[in-house]
Amino acid sequence: MDKTPDQKRAVQYLYPPLDPFDRRMLSVGQGHDVYVEQCGNPDGIPVVVLHGGPGGGCSPSMRRYFNPEKYRIILFDQRGCGRSTPHASVSDNTTWHLVADIELIRETLGIGQWVVFGGSWGATLSLIYAQTHPEAVRNIVLRGVFLMTQAELDWFYGGGAGKFWPEVWDNFISIVPQDERDDFIKAYHSRLFSDDLSLQTRYARAWSGWENALASISSTGQMIEGPGEYARAFARLENHYFINNGFLEYDGQILAQMDRIAHIPGVIVQGRYDMICPPTSAYAIAKAWPKGVLKMVRNAGHALSEPGISAELVRAMDRIAAT
User: Fold this and answer.
1) Measured by CB atoms within 10 angstroms of the end CB, which terminus of the chain is less buried, N or C?
2) What three-state secondary structure class fits 33?
3) Where are any strands of DSSP class E within 41-177?
């Protein structure tokens, strides 16, 4: 879960654009090759950026939340999306594969500890990675917290958010037969993984459009259609993870295991009016995290590009660099 519309609105808070000093394709196993890039100061504080979705991929704007003189900035496209190959593949693509990939990147780049920075699904993955490898994490910075719980999925795909955006919700559900409307994740799954590429693309655009329409607090509800290939990877991967409950052992696992990272300093930046990932998850994490500081941003929704959210994230990273 992660979209970044209206990026220009946040530009005033970001560092200038920069190009990577290193780009590579890393073979992570099971036939997957993951795109990895490094920017900024090769001798700076390492920070790994975990993008949303699942399936969203990283973008050049994500490099700009960090002082390039202070940070060694590592971005990568998770399995199946962005520049990673095979494109839109869900084969051997689970949360635990991604956690192993993150560790392989750290080891390949010779990094001892790094800052973990993630938003939306990237926040989910940040927490799971840190709980699995706490010794590798020096700080955690989260945005738009999603805990991969059934309650959160029910909110967004069961009609909760639709009560605020009934006309957009109606567009999302209208292409699903009446007798399948008890489970929209399942209904979309059968089309996103059909043998008909045009059917996949149609439902992928509807799936992605529903989320994109609710990302920003300034949204008009317009379901903007992006490139079909991007939408297909985004929707297939996101649906694959959600229908499998994030491949977690039990519902509520992330919150239940917060004791594993109690000693790690963290910042949580959350939009007060986030329609995709409501603030209750960020609040719950903050209560369970002795060293986690919650920054609730008023007049902000879910998108990384919300001005208030961008400003808080840059401030958080500047504070970490100064310590």
Assistant:
1) C
2) strand
3) 45-50, 71-76, 114-119, 137-143
